[in-house]
Design brief:
Length: 444
C-alpha cells in the first residue's frame, strides 16, 4: 500500500522545501544527460538525486557516507532530491558520489555553482547589479595530509616499500620494521626535548634505512612489478634525494600535488594544499567565481582568469574589482575592469567607503572553511582540488539562500502576528464582537 506523498505531509514553509522549488533541476538534467548512455547497461541514478546529495553535502559539511545516511533519516532531504514518497533504504552506495564527480568533472562542478547563482537571483538574495562590483582574494585550501616532517616522510617511504614487498611476495634481506618504529618515536622525543643534534642523527639513520629497503625492493622486482608500482617508486626516490633548498619539494606520497604556501599568518606560517582564488559580490558576499590555482602563482596573475570565470558564470563582466595589496602589477586594463587596490589614495569618499569593504571577503572565507569543506580537502589529485573548491562555493551560496528564506519567513510571521494583534485590539474596542474576540484568543 502506498502512503501519503512527501508533498502532502511536509511543511511547505520549511527552508529546504522552498529551496527545492527554486533550483533549476531541468537545466542540470539537460546539462548532464549527455554524459549517460540511454540504451546500454543498467539505468543511471537520477541526476537530481546525485546533484542534490552534493548540494546537501557542501551545505552541511558532510562526508559522502554521512550525507547518504542523513538522507535516509530526513524527509526534507529526500524531497529536496526529488523523491515523491519517503524511502527507508540508502539511495546509493557512497562510492557512487566519487564516480559521479569524475563523470561530470570540473566543468560539471562549475555548472552546479552557476545553478546556485541563478537560484540566488530567483530568491532575490542577489540582483543583476550585484555582479558589477566584486571583491577578489586568494586563500589556501589545505589538503588532508599530515604535517610533513622529514622523519615522518622517511617512515612513509619505508611503509610503502613494505607494502610493495608484501603484495609482490618479495623476500627482503632485512625489513627494519621494528627499528624504524622505535627510532621514529626516539626522534620525536629528542625533538620535544630540543636535543636537535641527536634528533638529526636519528633522522639521518631513518633515511638510510628507508633507502636500503627501497634499493632492495627495486633489485628484486620483476619488470611487470616495477611497471605496477612505478609511480610510488619514483616518488620515493625523489623524496629521499631532495634537499633543504630543493624547489617543488614533495610533501606527501599519496598527494604529490600538495604545495607549501606561506600566507604570513602568525599562528600558521605555512599551509600545505593549493592556492584558491575567489570572487564574491561586494554587498552580499555571494560567491560568483572560485577556482584552484596550482603551482601557487602570484596573486596578481590570477586576477585575469578570475574575472573571466565571473563573466562566464554570470554573463556580466564586473565593472569594479576590489583587491588587496598582493594584486599589485595585475595588468588588467582599466577599459576592461577598474581594479582598486587597498591603500590607494586620492579617491573620492564613495570609492574609499567601497574600498574599505574589501575586507568583508575574509569572514566569507572563514565561513567556507568552518561551515563548509574548504578547510580540509579530501578529494584526490589536481582535479579534486578544483572540484572541491567549486562545490564549496556552491554550498556557501546555498547557505546564504537558506538564510534569506528563513529571514523572509520570520518577517511574514511577524507581519501576521502584528495584524492579528491589531484585529484583537479592534475587537476589544467594540462590544459587538465578543464571540469573534473569544475565537481569536483561543486561536492564539
Amino acid at each position: 500500500m502506498i502512503g501519503w506523498s512527501l508533498e502532502m505531509v511536509l511543511d511547505p514553509s520549511q527552508e529546504l522545501y522552498r529551496l527545492a522549488s527554486v533550483i533549476d533541476w531541468t537545466a542540470l538534467e539537460a546539462e548532464f544527460c549527455k554524459l549517460y548512455c540511454p540504451d546500454n547497461g543498467r539505468p543511471g541514478v537520477p541526476i537530481r538525486l546525485m546533484a542534490g546529495l552534493h548540494f546537501l553535502k557542501h551545505v552541511y559539511a558532510l562526508s559522502d557516507e554521512e550525507v547518504v545516511r542523513h538522507w535516509v533519516q530526513n524527509p526534507y532531504d529526500q524531497y529536496f532530491c526529488g523523491e515523491e514518497y519517503f524511502q527507508h533504504r540508502l539511495p546509493i552506495n557512497p562510492s557512487q558520489m566519487t564516480k559521479w564527480r569524475k563523470r561530470i568533472g570540473e566543468a560539471g562542478c562549475e555548472k552546479l555553482l552557476q545553478i546556485t547563482i541563478e537560484a540566488g537571483k530567483r530568491t532575490k538574495t542577489i540582483t543583476e547589479r550585484s555582479f558589477e562590483k566584486v571583491i577578489v582574494d586568494t586563500t589556501v585550501q589545505p589538503k588532508a595530509v599530515a604535517h610533513p616532517t622529514d622523519a615522518r616522510l622517511y617512515r612513509k617511504v619505508h611503509a610503502a616499500m613494505i607494502r610493495i614487498a608484501k603484495s609482490e611476495r618479495l623476500e627482503l634481506r632485512q625489513s627494519f620494521t621494528r627499528t624504524v618504529r622505535n627510532e621514529f618515536s626516539q626522534h620525536a622525543r629528542y625533538a620535544k626535548a630540543k636535543q636537535f643534534k641527536r634528533a638529526r642523527k636519528v633522522q639521518k639513520h631513518l633515511k638510510t634505512l628507508a633507502g636500503r629497503v627501497l634499493r632492495d625492493v627495486e633489485r628484486k622486482l620483476s619488470d611487470e612489478g616495477y611497471a605496477r608500482h612505478r609511480g610510488t617508486l619514483l616518488l620515493s626516490e625523489l623524496l629521499l634525494t631532495q634537499k633543504r633548498k630543493t624547489k617543488n619539494k614533495l610533501y606527501s606520497l599519496h598527494a604529490p600535488e600538495v604545495e607549501c604556501i606561506a600566507k604570513g599568518k602568525a599562528h600558521r606560517p605555512y599551509e600545505f594544499g593549493v592556492k584558491v582564488s575567489l570572487a564574491v559580490t561586494h554587498k552580499e558576499g555571494f560567491v560568483v567565481g572560485i577556482q584552484s590555482c596550482p603551482d601557487s602563482p602570484y596573486d596578481g596573475h590570477t586576477l585575469d582568469g578570475q574575472l573571466d570565470q565571473v563573466e562566464r558564470l554570470t554573463g556580466t563582466l564586473p565593472r569594479m574589482a576590489f583587491v588587496d595589496k598582493g594584486y599589485r602589477g595585475h595588468g588588467i586594463p582599466e577599459e576592461r575592469s577598474r581594479v582598486f587596490i587597498s591603500g590607494t589614495s586620492k579617491l573620492g569618499d564613495t570609492l574609499k567607503r567601497q574600498l574599505r569593504r574589501r575586507s568583508a571577503v575574509e569572514p566569507e572565507i572563514g565561513h567556507m572553511k568552518s561551515d563548509g569543506l574548504l578547510g580540509r580537502n579530501f578529494l584526490k589529485g589536481v582535479q579534486g582540488d578544483a572540484m572541491n573548491a567549486l562545490l564549496c562555493g556552491a554550498g556557501h551560496n546555498l547557505r546564504k539562500i537558506l538564510a534569506r528564506i528563513r529571514a523572509l519567513l520570520c518577517l511574514l510571521l511577524d507581519d501576521a502576528k502584528a495584524a492579528l494583534n491589531d484585529l484583537i485590539a479592534h475587537l476589544e474596542r467594540s462590544n459587538a464582537y465578543r464571540p469573534a474576540l473569544m475565537a481569536a484568543r483561543i486561536g492564539m
